[in-house]
Input
Amino acid sequence: MKPRRVLAITRRIFAQFRHDRRTLALLFVVPLVILSLLYYLLRGGGGQPAVGVVNLDNGPLGAVVARQLESSSQVKASQIDLTTAQSRLRDDRLAGYIVLPTNFSSDALQQGVLRPEVHLEGSQPAQSGTVLQALSQSLLAALGTLPSQPGLRPPRLDLRVTYLYGGPQLDTLDYFGGAFIGLVVFFLVFVITCVAFLRERSQGTLERLMASPLRRGEIVLGYMLGFTILALIQAAEVLLFSLYVLKVHNSGSVLLIFAFEALMALSAVNLGIFLSMFARTEFQAVQFIPLVVAPQLLLSGVIFPVSSEPTWLQAVSRALPLTYVVDGLRDVMLKGADLSWAAIQLDAAVLGGFCVLMIVAAGATLRRRVA
Amino acid sequence: MAAQEDHAAEVTGVVKSFGRQAALQGVSLRLRRGEVYGLLGPNGSGKTTLIRCLLGLVKPDAGSVRVLGRLMPDLNVLSRIGYMTQTAALYPDLTVLENLRFFAAINGAEAHLTEALRFVDLEDRPDSVVATLSGGMRTRASLACAIVHRPELLLLDEPTVGVDPQLRRRLWDQFREMADGGTTLLISSHVMDEAERCQRLGLIRFGRLLAEGTVEELKEQAGVEKLEDAFLQLSAGEPR
Output
């Protein structure tokens, strides 16, 4: 063991990093970006689910409970009327609404029963749980404000919960399953295409292709077809495994899920070809993984709902293709959405547009790099 | 038109710079049909850039390139050109035959696979994966891929670099054989002794064609016995 020789290797590694500015940037800039994103996602204050409170109570207790809910730090509650609450729940602008019925106070005082109705959107188990938790805390706090009457038992809770989608049987895997079906396929396809196309360049065969009658569009389309077919087989496998082995909840059409995966595979393939133009080595191509993966993992709504992000981050999320994949897959699998839904049409249209954009971009960069 | 068709390729006053680096500074040359033309020059003299201009892969800053009667770049003429890159550019994870079939298919000519294999002596190794072949075999497989569509013009960029003497001799015999069959060959090289087997030579240096002619003509022009001396003599005093 000679320290000189060991140090020679160390010194050479630093010299290589000095020549590879991009890797240095990745090493020192990307962690800060990712941590900042996490900061905004977790501390941005947008994390509370929106809740509507419909107070129909003829007595005094309903107003007290409503005030308690409005001051809750767990949810963003506001008093609205019943029809507004119903329409907002359908539009995905509320995680749920709570109805305090006309005889809420009298039931509580005379029968010793609290009978609030809770109507949940239901597709996000974590949000549903938060709403229910906030409600029970507000009820307790409301009861605490009542003048204490000796000998009176605290009223018991008779909670009626309805779910617009899904239901109490929906678990965390059901919620994440749909998104991850998209995520897994997207990244594997992206990485494989990116590296394969880069190898075409580094092994010199791209030069040969360019010296043949092949047109640029033919090269891009040929790649697209090959990798898309592979990706579709993978997508089908992942989908069937999730639905029938892992029993992830699905209330929509399996074919529609597959159609979304197909669109997503197409965009992943073309993104891979496009980005491979900006890498000189396979090492640099691998660096695209954190650049492409990390922001999309955090911002596409896979883990944190896009609606809970600060407004400026939502704009970023809207620019990422995976956002639309996740949104579409969740709508189909959890809400049973079909092609007649405007949200599904929008998701599909944006993904289709992204595919076209990437195909054009890949074709254009291919010319630039060869000429 | 008939006059142009006598030439497989015509390069006229081609200038090309990459940034501040001048690669070609006004090169003109003509390839006659059925000849073996040697493009002789040291590394970095502009040989590869000239070949890429002939293929239309590089757009000249000035001047024009006509190949097989067509003004380049022209995709349609590329199926009549064969091109062998400096390194054996093949798909390492495919077999010899799979590589060959692919390059035949993109040129729209899949009829002569076995013939091409036989020509480069690989008819007993069609199913070998390229990554497992020796360097010499890879060069031969690469040549097979360049000729499988029976091109009229064959551009070979330093085909004999890193090739042992036996195979080098064999390759030159094959080049000769192809030329006798009517194919025009442009072969770039920086090795003088093998250049003697070309019918005509062009000496290129610093992106300029310094001299052109048969081996005898060049020696005479320089007044020396050996081609190597002729090259040094003719390129001496050329400003950068």
User: Anything to note?
Assistant: The longest strand of chain B covers residues 7-18.
